[in-house]
Design brief:
13 strands; five-stranded antiparallel beta sheet; SH3 type barrels; 14% strand; alpha+beta; three-stranded antiparallel beta sheet
Amino acid sequence: MKKTLANLYLSALICLGLVTCAQRAAGQQQPAPAAATSAASTAGIPDEEIPAGEVVIDGNPVLTVYEPVGTLTPQGRADAIKSRIIALARDASIPANSIHLEVRDAWTEIVAENLVIMAVTDADARGAGEPRQQLAEAYLQKIRQTVESYRQDHSWRMILRAILKTALATVFLVIALWLVRRVRLFVRHRIEKRTEISAARQDKSAWHLWVSYVGPFLLGLGTFLRWTLILALFEIFLTVTLGFYSSTREISLTATKWVLSQLELLAKSALDYLPNLVVIGVVALVTYYLMRLIKLVFAQIRKGDLKIHGFYPDWAEPTDKLIRMMVLALALVVAFPYLPGAKTPAFQGISIFLGVLLSLGSSSAVANAIAGIILTYMRSFLLGDWVQIGETMGEVVEKNMLITRLLTPKAEIITIPNATVMSGSVKNYSTEARKAGVIFYTTVSIAYEAPWRTVHELLIGAALATPHVLHDPPPFVLQRALNDFYPVYELNAYTDHPREVLNIYSDLHRNIQDKFNEAGVEICSPHYAALRDGNATSMPRQYLGTDYKSAGFRLDLNEIGNHGATPAKEPASQAAK
């Protein structure tokens, strides 16, 4: 109930605004004052160019005068005649039948007792296209009827009758608004129920999809139609109600004329717009079928059914989107001048504002879009490739005009702007992996005591024992450096599973440790930081035999004697040896 009262209050405020606009329109339609128009008359403007003046009382036209008199224009004369007729009608002591004609040489007067209401001149007769006496008789009858009607309409009996009619019209308005509300609630409930049922279904048919998407649109359209109907009802109510009272009947007629003129203007504008609408329809139809043709052609290229020399199938989808976007932009440019209000200053101002807004705020977006187009036709990487962009390594899971997304081995989605991709380097591990395999490598440092041929065999054996390492082409070893304490060996192997590179490295390093430990070869990397006496090996105990013993120190007594030093006494265990 509160919502209904609020709606009624809001509608009343809107209608009050419409009435105010109608009053202003009526005021704007009033002719200029006599003082202003008399200046035109005295300025030497011919009588034929001065518009006629019409006497209107309570919204009803009474008579028309055509000739200016003295400094009064025809409209000034009409206003003065109107004032005298109203004054005569308000004076009930003067009967309407007492109004009569008095013929003069150059004009005919319409007189009530000692009050001259107006004078009908020969120029007025020429303007009306009738003889002066006949025109004066007609004006006399109209003035008598107007006086009687004015007295009758402004009586208390007619005012009470108007109040009763207003109350009856108010009752009809309330009933109409109640019916509109009931219909709205009924239709809204049905649409919402159908939409919820269609959205909740698991096996949705085309009908259910249509209902789930069109339902909210119908609700919005229903709201618009409901408020339009409410405003129309209030406009009719105010027009009819104001017409009940003689003092406001002119406002009612003016408001009605204004509404009808606006509707007529709207209908005329719609009819005048039909040729433009036909042009827009043709442009839309051509654009639709052209985009369907473009989509069909590039779909065949993407499937491989249509081949163009030098055009790769992976270019089909981005090229399709790019060309369709250009066709759509061209269609908008062609149809823009034919849109409603395209030539109005407001529409042009909005267009300029949007253009400035896009030019100021889309520089980075444009840079990324251009970079995305360049990357597409450079074919640096494709969807599903394993790449390294900057410091990020992962699988390409999305690539569009603005960004590239990578899925890292840690299950992280990294979004990289295309401008950043273009400014850096891209390592693609999948391109060669699809051919002969991609090389991965690791380095180890072994003591100089180990023969390099043995080291090569152990490293290659560790690589061949690692899953996802190709046997053909076979792994190979490069000796990268001969450092002060150990040489550096680089093991290179091929794989066609670059996504498993982390697991491959882990398995390979385990296999290297196992192979070298089994062969009794000590790995010197990473460097040892602890001090050793050099006697015991650093190999794990399970790789040493049960009879293994650490070597003792060997002393050259002659060398010691030559330096004059006293030899240290060997431990008893060493002396026993």
